[in-house]
Write a structure and sequence with these properties.
By secondary structure, the chain is an all-alpha fold. It contains 73 helices and two strands. A two-stranded parallel ribbon has the order 1-2. Helix 64 packs parallel to helix 66.
Length: about 1550
């Protein structure tokens, strides 16, 4: 046969053989063992390589299909298992370099044609070649070919990213492989100039374009997942590494230095003159300036690249002595940006907004790098370098300010960075900065507002520290007084800026603040006020100045008794000047009579706003200073003498503006009231201030208080009633027609405690109505609310509902409930004829005095009101209760007669919304009548309404669930029993059950949804709490329960009849409701009997007599329910709690009959069979339950009760069978760890009963089960669940109280358990996926073993085994949640050793300290300073871990007081790690406090030893630490000891 195929090679070379035959022959020759050729594999590779090379060199023509088949053959050969095996065996097989050239040319064609069709095979070939070392030599031996390949692949990837097509993985996989090969070769190159030339000549441009496109790509789900999540990030990192090692090698620094510092001495130039001069910066600039991509992309690519290149440059060369070189590099890279043309004046301003944004972002990144690397040293630049850096930054600042871009956040950040570098950079243009970045800047969007506020905050901080605050605000005033760029400029201080200003004002000296205020007052008095009449521009300036004065006076530190007298006198003088020079002239201007047309003028409106704002500010500040500072004398008092009490009470403006007539003030008020703006709001504030002043008098004027409160409410009534409002930012000066309703409602809600006692009942009802309407609106717009911290009417109303004050305002609480009931009555449709008889209509009648019981005790007596209005005769006080009785009878009657109101879906949704609002009320704090009213409303909604056939069933279920939930909330209140004044308890239960059984006909198709389970739980919870109330009241208990039971029996007959007609017609929901009602009744009675003390057992005969028929009826119900259950079907979940309750009732009954010793003797045989059937079925279903908690929890509760009576076990079964079933459950693949954790309580209860009642032999069998699960073969056979189940069982066993032989057996096996856990942990730590599932439970179990084993585990070796676990557990490269769990687990084990085994701590101290040191190192690593990351959830975890480390240091110090030999070792370990990282301040605070406790143990000899033995850098860190310890901690400790007994 061999001879037959010996001519293969000749046929392959023959021109007569067709290419199709050649390819078939080549494929056959490759796979066939019978084809004999010398060096066959190399011959075939050479043949296909030569064919492809010859074709592409135009030596012969081939059809495209043949060419593709040749490529496919080459690809198959390269990737074949045969070739790989031959190469592994040591055989030498290679490719020619011409193959690499052909591949590169083919990829080059694809790039030029901009099509990537039919190159998949070529890419696959290149991938196979690069991943096979013996083949990749064709690229690695000729680096130029590899560079060319990398360039072409990068361009291909760029084309794919720039197109709209989905991104595949092939190009990027090959590209990543090529990058890896090139970086390997690049590191081996010894000529840095050659590498630089390769990178700049061929790779720089495509790599920068590739990185940009990878960064800005909007990835979609259609794109390849591996590329999106992994390869894109990996390739970006590879690009950065390539540029770092190619452009910025240490050997190239001299070239950079020579080019960037032309002023260097000749001698330094001479050193580099031996070789041709390399101009690296110029080369990079040229490449960046060339057209290497589409013009639309070029600017963005360059802008994104300069910051990267500068970062890489700094990473390589940034040292203190090189800072000037780094600056020049910055300036040269900045020249690559389009902004540089604007700076130099060589470019017209033609940048689009998108270009501006990109360019400014790049500039921001460059400046940030300069600032963070301390490139700019002000003194060095001025003394040594003739302010070359300062001059550059000045030009930069001028360019930014002359081309204002206030809509771009980066523009503000660039200015902030320049300010942070040196405030003198922007100082000469401070007025332009204030104007363009603050006063005239229209930065209303949140994305621009935040950086703007950060910039202005930097200005505040800078000029505050320089004590030049007046200088800054002098410029602010100058800008305000300029002609406005826009008619309506934004307010000077936003809410965020006001907070920043307040922080500065608290730190500033008072005279600096007074200088600013005097400046504004003087300018206002001399320039603005005289010219304000008729000038809208001046009025706007006046408002801006007034808002500044208001902000300063409201946020500066108040005067007090320790304020220096000169400051007090100067403040008095300022307020006097403000009153006489600004306020009085403005008031005189406003009080002049005007025609209606004039009142519409803008100047008049703004002047009115300014005047009233200043009046309010003056009054508030004057009152505050008068209260807080005894040295302060009000300017008003100085002018007009002491103001009498009557003047304070009755006089409006005369209290602070003596001499003004009330008639004039009324004209001012009339004018201010005509504008829904700042002036109207300030009038309300002044009225409120007046109320406060009256209340501070010894005898308050009630009429004046009532008039003031009425004025405030009336002032905003019309605006609120319109229903049009916008959110308000809290700034008084910005109130407009649309924000005024919000501001007014804010004032009312914030001051309800002051207003409420002095307003009429109608006004209280008005507030309640507004509160309800705004809540309804807020609920409707909940999804549309923005995340801005602005104030809205909805937020205010919700805040009031959530506050603890509302229930204390009894009148308002009552009125709100009335308003809510009226709203319900309006939502529900009226009946056709007798609509008056509907319960909600009766409750909403307006003439019923629901509030009288509150007013009788809470309201102050008003002698001015007529007796007929408030004081009702005694017999009329019960009118409300008579109404409630009538309504209760109506509810019950309608429920019995089945006369419901039909609700449409929209009405049902409205009712549900109102119920959600009702849930915001504190229902448990309602007064008796209100509690009863609320109960009637909810009961009426449940029993007297019915959903239309088209309604959503899920919506109806949610409606019922909410009603039952609110009924339970009412029953938890202190006045819950008031319901029984108008109801018989059995009537309520009958009405509820009747309505729910009727409604259950609609729920046949939603039995499996979670909403139904929640509905059934709510019904059960309501029945349980209501039945408990009946029993605890001890009034007509038997009568009520017997009536309810007989009602259930009658319903049971109906259900049974329905079932007998055929199971198809029977509704399972009705059956579940009936079963649940019986179960709840049985459970409540049983629980009550169990909790009765022994002395009162006789008095329980009534309930015991009731329990027997209930139990019998339940048995029948369960048996009927199980008739439909075929043998192979799982148990209905609803029956399990019922059978559990039955068993509890039977056992309880046995106790009542004094048959405690043999309770099983009391049970009838059929009953025992029922329980045993359930037990067996549950044991069968338990292992297959998976994560079905709805089954697992009731099933485990049944087993807990069942296993408490060992005699109930069927046949020869024992407790071991139950443990075996639990073990199978825990090993099930469908049971997640979270489910196991959520079941631990139930599992523990089962095991407590099992182990408490089992024999010693059975316990030994359980222990064998546990130990089998901990065998190593389980983890070797990938049976992680077996290990987890054994670990979980061990942890649960530790929670069970064991005694006698069982306890001895467990602790006898404990060394074996610890050893097994240590070995399991060591194996599991090698697999990252097992950290959270296996390692963390092992740590928890070991910690519990050590705690429980205190005084029992006497062998130190057994305890020390725990350290072998701790030393293998990984603490790095973990997710935050996993890190938290592992850290806590390790900490708990260490803490258990410290607390429970102190002797082991001393004997195994090195292992303990090594384990603990790993925790410290991990916290230091995770708690590094990583920029301004804020307090995120992840960082909160790190902080908690650092706090635990601090506590552990404290515990160690307490245990080692007599054993200080290790203290210096601990400190040395700490400072060695500290020297490697820069910790976040919050983390460092915890760790430092902890290590101070160890330093307390160090004696002088230890300190000398540490100073002498630590390495140089570490020694410096230790000295700083020890100095801080002496300065802060030791001094404080000695001070505390001085006063300690």
């Amino acid at each position: 046969m061999a001879a037959v195929y010996s001519g293969v090679y000749l046929r392959l070379k023959s021109a007569k053989t067709s290419w199709e035959d050649k390819l078939k022959l080549a494929r056959f020759a490759w796979v066939s063992q019978q084809c004999v050729l010398p060096n066959k594999e190399q011959v075939l590779l050479d043949w296909v390589s030569h064919a492809l090379v010859a074709y592409y060199n135009k030596k012969f023509e081939l059809e495209d299909e043949v060419v593709e088949k040749l490529w496919a053959y080459l690809d198959d050969v390269i990737h074949s298992r045969r070739l790989q095996d031959l190469l592994k065996s040591g055989k030498t097989i290679g490719l020619s370099f011409s193959v690499a050239q052909v591949i590169n040319e083919r990829l080059s064609e694809a790039c030029s044609q901009k099509t990537q069709q039919n190159i998949g095979t070529v890419l696959s070939c290149s991938s196979g070649i690069l991943s096979t070392p013996s083949l990749s030599i064709i690229y690695t031996a000729k680096c130029e070919l590899l560079v060319d390949l990398l360039s072409k692949l990068s361009m291909l990837a760029c084309q794919q990213l720039a197109s709209d097509d989905t991104v595949g993985s092939q190009v990027f996989s090959v590209l990543q492989l090529t990058f890896a090969q090139y970086l390997l070769i690049q590191r081996q190159q010894t000529n840095p100039n050659r590498v630089f030339g390769q990178v700049t000549g061929h790779l720089l441009q495509p790599c920068l374009l590739l990185r940009h496109l990878l960064t800005v790509r909007s990835w979609t789900q259609a794109d390849d997942n591996h590329v999106r999540q992994h390869l894109s990030r990996e390739i970006r990192n590879q690009v950065e590494t390539l540029l770092q090692t190619g452009l910025f090698q240490p050997e190239l620094f001299s070239s950079y230095k020579e080019e960037l510092l032309p002023e260097q001495e000749f001698q330094e130039r001479k050193k580099g003159a031996l070789k041709s001069l390399l101009l690296p910066v110029h080369t990079v600039q040229t490449k960046l300036g060339a057209d290497f991509c589409e013009p639309a992309l070029h600017g963005a690519v360059v802008a994104g690249s300069v910051s990267l290149l500068y970062k890489l440059f700094l990473d390589s060369y940034c040292k203190v002595e090189n800072h000037l070189v780094c600056f020049h590099m910055f300036s040269r890279l900045f020249d690559c940006l389009q902004l540089s043309g604007l700076q130099q004046g060589t470019r017209e301003n033609v940048l689009s907004p998108a270009d501006w944004s990109t360019e400014l972002l790049a500039l921001e990144q460059l400046l940030h790098l300069v600032l963070s690397n301390d490139i700019y040293n002000i003194a060095s630049d001025r003394i040594r370098h003739k302010e070359i850096q300062f001059g550059f930054y000045r030009k930069l600042a001028q360019m930014l300010l002359s081309h204002s871009q206030a809509s771009i956040p980066a523009w503000f950040r660039c200015l902030k960075l320049l300010m942070s570098l040196n405030h003198l950079i922007v100082e000469p243009d401070l007025d332009d900065l204030v104007a363009s970045a603050w006063i005239d800047a229209k930065a209303s969007e949140p994305r621009t507002k935040k950086p703007q506020e950060a910039l202005i905050d930097t200005m505040f901080q800078t000029y505050s520290k320089l004590r030049q605050f007046p200088r800054l605000f002098e410029e602010v005033l100058t800008v305000i007084c300029r002609p406005a760029a826009d008619e309506l400029r934004l307010p000077v201080f936003s809410a965020g800026l006001t907070v920043k200003l307040c922080e500065c004002l608290l730190e500033l000296p008072p005279n600096q603040i007074l200088d600013v205020l005097c400046l504004f007052v003087e300018k206002c008095q001399t320039l603005i006020v005289p010219a304000v009449e008729g000038s809208a521009d001046m009025a706007l300036k006046l408002l801006s100045v007034s808002s500044v004065l208001h902000t300063f006076l409201f946020n500066m530190r108040s005067l007090d008794d320790i304020t220096p007298s000169p400051v007090v006198l100067r403040t008095q003088s300022l307020l006097a000047k403000m009153r006489t020079g600004i306020i009085q002239p403005l008031i005189e201007l406003l009080q002049a009579p005007r025609r209606k047309r004039e009142k519409l003028d803008l100047w008049l409106r703004k002047a009115s706003d300014s005047a009233l704002l200043l009046v309010y500010t003056w009054v508030e500040v004057d009152a505050l200073f008068g209260v807080s500072c005894s040295k302060y004398v009000s300017p008003a008092t100085e002018t007009a003498g002491a103001v009498t009490a009557s003047a304070a009470r009755h006089g409006g403006v005369s209290t602070f503006l003596p001499g003004m007539e009330e008639q004039c003030w009324e004209r001012v008020m009339e004018l201010a009231n005509s504008f829904a703006s700042t002036s109207k709001y300030c009038l309300e504030l002044l009225t409120l201030q007046k109320m406060k002043m009256i209340l501070m008098q010894t005898k308050a004027d009630l009429r004046a208080l009532q008039q003031a409160a009425a004025f405030i409410l009336e002032s905003g009534r019309s605006s609120l009633s319109r229903g049009e409002s916008e959110p308000w930012d809290g700034d008084i000066s910005t109130i407009s027609d649309l924000t005024y309703p919000t501001a007014h409602w804010h004032l009312v809600v914030s001051n309800l405690t002051i207003l409420l006692p002095y307003i009429s009942l109608k006004d209280v009802e008005y507030i309640a109505d507004v509160l309800l309407e705004t809540l309804v609106l807020a609920k409707a717009q909940e999804a549309d609310t923005d995340l801005e911290p602005s104030i809205s009417i909805g937020k205010l109303s919700l805040g009031l509902m959530h506050s603890s004050f509302l229930p204390e305002m009894k009148v308002l609480h009552c009125a709100f409930l009335t308003s809510l009931i009226n709203k319900f009555a309006r939502v529900l449709p009226s009946a056709a004829k007798d609509s008056v008889d509907l319960p909600l209509q009766q409750l909403s009648v307006g003439n019923i005095p629901w509030h009288e019981e509150i007013l009788a005790s809470c309201r102050p007596v008003d002698a001015l009101e007529k007796p007929s209005e408030n004081k009702l005769p005694n017999n009329e006080l019960s009118l409300s209760w008579k109404t409630l009785e009538k309504v209760a009878q109506c509810v019950v009657l309608l429920a019995k007669n089945d006369c419901p109101v039909i609700l449409k879906e929209s009405q049902l949704e409205s009712c549900l919304g109102l119920l959600e609002i009702a849930s915001l009320m504190k229902l448990d704090g309602l007064l008796p009548s209100d509690c009863t009213r609320c109960f009637l409303v909810l009961l009426s909604l449940l029993t007297n309404t019915k959903a239309s056939a088209s309604c959503s069933k899920l919506l109806l279920l949610k409606f019922f669930s909410t009603c039952f939930h609110l009924l339970r909330c009412l029953q938890a209140g202190r006045n819950a029993n008031s319901v029984f004044k108008v109801f018989h308890a059995s009537d309520v239960l009958e009405a509820v059950m009747t309505s729910q059984l009727t409604a259950s006909k609609f729920f046949t198709d939603v039995l499996t949804v979670p909403v139904e389970a929640q509905y059934l739980q709510e019904v059960q919870a309501f029945l349980e709490s209501f039945l408990q109330m009946i029993i605890e009241r001890k009034q007509s208990v038997r009568l009520n329960l017997e009536k309810f039971m007989s009602f259930l029996m009658s319903c049971k007959t109906d259900v049974g009849a329905a079932k007998s007609k055929g199971w198809k017609n029977w509704n399972p929901t009705s059956g579940q409701l009936m079963l649940m009602a019986f179960t709840t009744l049985c459970h409540v009675i049983t629980l009550y009997l169990q909790q009765l003390p022994e002395k009162k057992l006789r008095s329980a005969d009534v309930l015991s007599a009731l329990l027997e028929p209930v139990v019998l009826q339940m048995v029948r119900t369960v048996e009927h329910g199980l008739q439909s259950n075929t043998p192979n079907q799982p148990l209905p979940i609803a029956f399990i709690p019922s059978v559990t309750t039955l068993l509890q009732a039977d056992l309880s009954h046995a106790v009542q009959k004094d048959w405690q010793k043999l309770p099983i003797g009391f049970l009838e045989q059929p009953r025992i069979k029922l329980y045993q059937k359930f037990y067996s079925q549950i044991l069968r279903e338990l292992p297959c339950a998976g994560d079905n908690l709805q089954f697992l929890q009731p099933a485990l509760q049944f087993l807990t009760v069942f296993c408490s009576v060992p005699e109930l076990y069927p046949g020869k079964e024992t407790a071991v069978m139950v443990v075996f079933a639990i073990k199978k459950l825990l090993t099930g693949p469908a049971v997640p760890t979270q489910v196991i954790q959520s079941m631990e309580v139930e599992l523990t209860e089962v095991l407590v009963q099992l182990l408490g009642n089992c024999s010693a032999e059975e316990f030994y069998a359980v222990m064998r089960l546990v130990l089998q699960g901990l065998e190593m073969r389980n983890v070797w056979q990938q049976k992680a669940k077996e290990v987890l189940s054994a670990v979980t069982l061990t942890k649960l066993l530790l929670r069970c109280p064991l005694n006698g032989d069982k306890e001895k057996a467990f602790w006898f096996a404990s060394p074996q358990i610890i050893t097994a856990l240590a070995m399991q942990a060591k194996e599991a730590c090698q697999d990252q996926s097992l950290i959270s599932t296996i390692v963390v439970p092992i740590l928890e179990t070991v910690a519990a073993l050590l705690r429980q084993g205190e005084g029992i585990l006497l062998n130190p070796h057994h305890v020390a085994l725990a350290f072998s676990i701790l030393l293998t557990v990984p603490l790095d490269h973990l997710k935050t949640e996993d890190y938290r769990s592992v850290f806590l687990g390790v900490h708990e084990v260490l803490f258990s050793v410290v607390q429970c085994h102190p002797k082991v701590l001393l004997k195994a101290a090195p292992s303990f300290l090594s384990s603990f040191h790993r925790l410290v190192v991990s916290v230091m690593h995770e708690g590094r300073q990583k920029g301004d990351r804020g307090i995120t959830d992840e960082f909160e975890v790190i902080l908690k871990c650092a706090h635990l480390v601090e506590r552990m240091y404290t515990h160690i110090a307490a245990e080692m007081e007599n054993f200080t030999v290790f203290s210096s070792f601990i400190v040395a370990q700490y400072v060695t790690e500290l020297q490697k990282v820069t910790l976040h301040p919050a983390v460092k605070k915890h760790l430092t406090e902890g290590i101070y406790r160890i330093l307390d143990l160090c004696i002088e000899r230890d300190i000398k030893f540490l100073n002498a033995s630590l390495p140089a850098g570490v020694s410096e860190v230790f000295k700083d630490l020890y100095n801080d310890y002496n300065h802060y901690h030791k001094a404080k400790k000695q001070g505390e000891e001085k006063y300690t007994a």
